[in-house]
Amino acid sequence: MKPITSTDYNVYFNTDAFTALNEHLEKNNYSKIFILVDSNTNANCLPVFLPQLVTNCEVEIIEIEAGEIHKNIETCTGVWNAISELGGDRKSLMINLGGGVVTDLGGFVAATYMRGINFINIPTTLLSMVDASVGGKTGIDLGTLKNQVGVFCTPEMVLISTDFLNTLPSNEMRSGMAEMLKHGLIADENYWNFFKNLQNLTLEDLDKLIYDSVIIKNNVVLQDLKESNLRKTLNFGHTLGHAIESFFLNDESKTTLLHGEAIAIGMILAAHLSHQKLNFSIEKVDEIKSVILNYFEKVAIEENDLDTIISLMKHDKKNTYGTINFVLLEGIGNPTIDIKVDNNMILKAFEYYKN
After folding, report:
1. Which first-to-last residue range defines the signal peptide (predicted)?
2. 3-state secondary structure at position 56
3. 245 and 343 share a domain?
4. What is the total count of domains within the chain?
């Protein structure tokens, strides 16, 4: 697979990835290499990665706790302190080996330590491969509010090795599938159609779907890095999805949802809002709901949860001047940004999801 060129770095795939990494390390005289992992990737991915690493540079491993709940400023402080105590300087390199929490937080730590050190992202989950791998977004959560603090900062390179997916639980694989479904809905109906029947999917098919998904996201990012216009389309399903994710994260009586599980709900809701607001075909809404619920179990959302979920939407980063803005569909592959909807429409969309 040919490397994909993003804003000012390349995304390399499978065997080419580690060749590119070692060539980069040979060319750059780094003082020290820090590998950021969480407790899961330390156990499952680091033993796969380290034998691929060829360098005479001193390597230090920094481990953080796994899970979205640890994607916060306290974890950043711990990592900054560890880098400092281990002798990190401006010529150090950070390699972020993990899912979206590790690459988002690790990128933010690298971008801010001594006003910025180089970093490389090695996404190990399907979600991070097709989403966090491209776009130069780094960041952490503010309490339960998703990605409220962060900076745009691009890595030196991104390395995608689908071998890491062999270590991934099935629910994490499904979580990544949500972003791939989204890419089809906002950009390419032919790509969307692949997901209607995946019974005969091979590993080679999955590699190609991941590659195509990265291309779809990259094509959007190249046209709008700072999310002033077109890039907002990548947030289809995220306005309500992030609010649902935050609500389930904050309510101790609820089972925490993975990012993709929440976005799956958000996409069904956004599809129904598209029908209400833009006359998007109800048959297509039903198709979207059917395909998504083939992958994701329906989640129980109670009537008295809705006010809190709707109030959480006011923190969405796409909002301007206090107005909540949605990405909706005029057709599959034809999204529209900055659409305002009223609460009654949102309640109708939840009713549609539940029934």
Report:
1. none
2. coil
3. yes
4. 2
Residues 122 and 177 in one domain: no
Strand bridging mode 33-38 / 4-5 = unpaired
In the numeric block, the tokens 């407790």 are attached to: 39
Q: Which two tokens stand for residue 167?
A: 């270590």
Using CA of residue 55, residue 57, residue 58, residue 64, what is the dihedral sign?
negative
The SS3 of residue 45 is coil
Largest CA distance in the chain: 62
What pTM was estimated for this model as a whole? 0.89
Q: Which of 285, 343, 284, 286 is nearest to 309 (CA)?
A: 343
Pairing outcome for strands 326-331 and 334-339:
antiparallel
Looking at 118, 153, 168, which one is the last position of a domain? 168
Residues 131 and 182 in one domain: no
Between CA 230 and CA 239 the distance in angstroms is 16
Averaged over 291-319, what is the pLDDT?
Answer: 86
Residue type (1 letter), 54: V
Q: Are residues 152 and 241 in the same domain?
A: no
Q: What is the pLDDT, as a whole number, of residue 52?
A: 95
Taken in order 317, 113, 158, 122, the sign of the CA dihedral is: negative
Pair of tokens at residue 66: 């796994």
Q: CB neighbours (10 Å) of residue 65? A: 13
**Using one digit for the tens of pLDDT, what is the confidence trace for 142-173?**
987 888 999 999 999 999 999 999 988 889 99
| pLDDT tens column, 312-355 | 987 665 555 466 889 999 999 999 999 999 999 999 999 999 99
Residue 220 maps to which CATH number? 1.20.1090.10
Q: Same structural domain for residues 160 and 188? A: no
As a whole-number percent, the residues of the chain with pLDDT over 90 amount to 79
Which residues fall within 8 angstroms of residue 278, CB to CB, at 6 or more apart? Answer: 328, 329, 330, 336, 339
Q: Which residues form the domain of 77?
A: 4-168
From 136, 168, 200, the end of a domain falls on: 168
- What does the mean pLDDT of the chain come to? 93
Question: Same structural domain for residues 94 and 191?
Answer: no
Strand-pair category, 93-98 with 33-38: parallel
